[in-house]
TrEMBL record:
This is Tricarboxylate transport membrane protein TctA. The keyword Nucleus does not apply. The chain crosses the membrane at residues 58-79, 121-141, 153-177, 183-206, 213-242, 262-286. InterPro entries: DUF112_TM (IPR002823). Pfam families: TctA (PF01970). The keyword Transmembrane applies. Residues 2-237 form the DUF112 domain. Keywords: Membrane, Transmembrane, Transmembrane helix. It comes from the Bacteria.
Length: 305
């Protein structure tokens, strides 16, 4: 009745499930060599791809501002756009550096833009902002328009902190990347048990209860099994985070409207989002039905011939 704790669910869905996937693959090490050479990378290497990087970054920002999308979608769209305008589209996927630049720029453009729906609407843009949203809720802070009014100083502190972190990450990576790469030389039989132990200890430390440990293990199995059947675990995570907020807002709205559901259809903003919800369900079903119908007609034509 109290809901599922966010931290054990996160550890299970993304950490323990990944350990199970890697264990199934049976890899001896994470990398073949783990070698990092001394070859440099300067702005001169970026200049030939400047148009692709700018366009793909813009695509990443637009996709990142849409809740629940993530970097994989922006990378896919950025590469498709770069291939569309390329003079040699067949070389994409075969080592064309323009495709690599498009994919990475789209992914990186999404990273900052996912904060837009999280900070303004309280809806996480991807997994990372979902974790950040959970951290804010644990501290008693409700992301949304009121956060900017009631805790404006904190919001700008977070923004400045992100800028400083990126600067610090540059110098840390520059100095320690070769040492970080050596973790790929640790045998999986040693590394994975250590990671699993840290996950279970973290789940237990959340509320000093074995219940959280069992929650983490349960969601680890769920996160391992669902992708095998084509289901993503991200909607589940968003449901765990937004579920309590939806229940609270639903009760508050029904109290204001004397238990009338018309309040969700009389306001333009709520009506707009309800229409989007209906379209997001109906349009994919219609496309699936249309594709099956076209496939059926093509197979019928082929048989008749």
């Amino acid at each position: 009745m109290a809901g599922v704790s966010l931290i054990p669910a996160l550890l299970g869905l993304f950490a323990i499930s990944e350990i199970l996937k890697q264990t199934q693959q049976g890899t001896g090490k994470l990398s073949v060599t783990g070698k990092v050479d001394d070859q440099g990378f300067t702005w001169r290497n970026v200049i030939p791809f400047r148009k692709t990087i700018l366009k793909s970054s813009l695509i990443g920002v637009i996709i990142g501002a849409i809740p629940g999308t993530g970097g994989s979608i922006s990378s896919f769209l950025a590469v498709n756009e770069a291939r569309r305008v390329s003079k040699d589209p067949d070389s994409y996927g075969k080592g064309n550096l323009d495709g690599v630049a498009a994919s990475e720029a789209g992914n990186n453009g999404t990273t900052g833009a996912t904060l837009i729906p999280m900070m303004t609407l309280g809806i996480p843009g991807d997994v990372v902002t979902a974790v950040l949203l959970g951290a804010l809720l644990i501290q008693g802070l409700q992301p949304g328009p009121q956060l900017f009014q009631n805790h404006g100083g904190l919001v700008y502190t977070i923004m400045i902190g992100f800028i400083l972190v990126n600067i610090i990450m540059f110098f840390v990576a520059k100095l320690a990347i070769k040492q970080f790469a050596k973790i790929s030389q640790v045998p999986a039989t040693v590394l994975f048990p250590i990671v699993l132990m840290c996950c279970l200890v973290g789940a237990y430390a959340y509320d000093n209860s074995m219940r959280s440990v069992w929650f983490a293990l349960f969601f680890g199995i769920v996160g391992y099994v669902l992708p095998k059947f084509g289901y993503s675990v991200i909607p589940m995570l968003i449901g765990i985070i937004l579920g309590p907020l939806a229940e609270t807002s639903l009760r508050r709205s029904l109290v204001l409207s004397n238990e009338s559901l018309l309040i969700f259809f009389q306001r333009p903003i709520s009506l707009f989002f309800i229409i989007l919800i209906v379209l997001s369900i109906v349009v994919p079903l219609f496309k699936k039905y249309r594709d099956k119908r076209v496939e059926r007609e093509q197979s019928t034509t082929t048989i008749s011939k």
